[in-house]
């Protein structure tokens, strides 16, 4: 009896993801402050946006003019330009893919938020004219940090980790528990994707070590308990920036637009930052980007507020179940409490922080104006909810 031939089983094709898809056109507003990911929740669209931001950065003339790590003058040739080579695009895309897969499906701390922070980081660096003074490898490292700054976030705060005696709190001795975890995982994914080797081959051992310093500082700098300390750092770091760095945009560039704003490093004068100064400045930039929701249009602001309220509320339920202490604002999920919480956060933390940024970069005053506009929107909503509440109390 003849046996049926065995089906041919082919080994799985090794599929290298693409950095950007030829079938997906990025949004027109991608390289402006108007852009926000609040209405994009498909991971393939978000990964494509990440690819476009990295591609733009690698093709950026400002970025390429930033000089070598540790150099003190601008240089048009840069060893990091090797990274822009298409042969490395697959490795970078693999890294982005891995990072996306390691973000959890939390209401707020998810890949959508990470892409927003990456976007704001790039736009801030570009628009503030810091790019020509920062070694390009550091810009690359900063974008890696921004993308990974919340990777594998469990959807609860450091305080919850500490009070629940979690494994992570034990591992990191209650010290910036989540940020240390995000940082550790970033380096694991850099290794797994092969991007660490590409970086090592491109910038050398010392260059890689300096990039590692940037990534660690930027991710640990997103710990909100270090907020006030970081604002003082920003003042100190920007004091080192020559006045020209805060120059007005090139004639013809829109207030929100960086597309035509391509000043070159030599014209701006001043030297490239050394490692220490760059690290100080870059960690501030990522923290600013992490708190940039309030500078967006109100629809996006409202979306992200709803999401963070939801995440806090879920945490408060877990705290209740475990008998852990809980902050009162986390338990409140009604619209009036959301307005009150947002107003408190915007007035006490976000507005003063961005006023500090605009003092250094006066041509970006529209960011502070946007926050003030959003405060007025929340105040109007608060009034409406209070009014409705009063009518409700009178009726019943
Ligand atoms: Zn974040």
Descriptive notes:
The protein is mainly α. The chain folds into two domains: 43-290, Catalytic domain of cyclic nucleotide phosphodiesterase 4b2b (Orthogonal Bundle), CATH 1.10.1300.10; 294-396. 60% of the residues lie in helices and 0% in strands. The protein has helices at 43-59, 61-64, 89-102, 111-127, 136-148, 158-163, 167-171, 177-193, 195-220, 227-238, 265-268, 275-290, 298-322, 328-331, 335-360, 366-395. Helix 15 (335-360) packs antiparallel against helix 16. The longest helix is centred in the C-terminal third of the chain and has 30 residues, at 366-395.
Describe the structure using short key phrases.
mainly alpha, Catalytic domain of cyclic nucleotide phosphodiesterase 4b2b, 0% strand, globular, binds zinc ion
What structural category arises from helix and sheet content?
A: mainly alpha
Q: Which of globular, elongated, flat, extended, rod-shaped describes the shape?
A: globular
The beta-strand count equals 0
Query: What's the architecture of the largest domain, going by CATH?
Result: Orthogonal Bundle
Give the domain tally: 2
Low-confidence stretches: 64-79, 243-269
Helix content: 55-70%
SS element count, helices: 16
Radius of gyration: 23 Å
């Amino acid at each position: 009896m003849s046996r049926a031939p065995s089906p041919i089983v082919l080994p799985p094709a090794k599929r290298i993801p693409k950095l950007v898809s030829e079938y997906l056109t990025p949004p027109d507003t991608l390289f402006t402050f108007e852009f926000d990911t609040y209405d994009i929740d498909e991971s393939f669209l978000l990964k494509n946006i990440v690819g476009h931001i990295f591609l733009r950065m690698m093709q950026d003339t400002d970025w390429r003019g930033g000089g070598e790590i540790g150099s003190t003058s601008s240089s048009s040739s840069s060893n990091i330009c090797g990274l822009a080579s298409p042969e490395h695009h697959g490795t970078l895309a693999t890294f982005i893919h891995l990072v996306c897969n390691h973000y959890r499906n939390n209401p707020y701390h998810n890949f959508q938020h990470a892409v927003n922070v990456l976007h704001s980081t790039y736009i801030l660096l570009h628009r503030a004219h810091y790019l020509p003074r920062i070694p390009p490898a550091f810009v690359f490292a900063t974008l890696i940090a921004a993308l990974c700054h919340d990777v594998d976030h469990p959807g609860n705060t450091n305080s919850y980790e500490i009070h629940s005696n979690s494994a992570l709190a034990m591992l990191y001795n209650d010290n910036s528990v989540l940020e240390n975890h995000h940082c550790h995982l970033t380096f694991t994914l850099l290794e797994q994707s092969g991007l660490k080797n590409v970086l090592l081959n491109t910038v050398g051992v010392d260059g890689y070590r300096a990039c590692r310093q940037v990534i660690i500082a930027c991710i640990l700098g997103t710990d909100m308990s270090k907020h006030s300390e970081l604002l003082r750092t920003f003042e100190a770091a920007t004091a080192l920036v020559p006045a020209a760095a805060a120059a007005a945009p090139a004639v013809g560039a829109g207030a929100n637009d960086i597309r035509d704003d391509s000043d070159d490093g030599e014209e701006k004068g001043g030297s490239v930052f050394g490692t220490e100064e760059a690290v100080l400045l870059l960690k501030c930039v990522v923290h600013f980007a992490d708190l940039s929701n309030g500078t967006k249009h109100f629809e996006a602001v409202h979306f992200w507020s709803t999401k963070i309220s939801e995440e806090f509320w879920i945490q408060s339920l877990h705290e209740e179940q475990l008998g852990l202490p809980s902050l009162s604002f986390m338990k409140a999920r009604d619209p009036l409490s959301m307005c009150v919480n947002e107003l408190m956060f915007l007035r006490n933390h976000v507005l003063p922080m961005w006023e500090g940024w605009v003092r250094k970069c006066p041509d970006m005053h529209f960011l502070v104006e946007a926050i003030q506009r959003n405060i007025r929107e929340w105040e109007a909503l608060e009034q409406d909810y209070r009014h409705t509440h009063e009518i409700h109390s009178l009726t019943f």
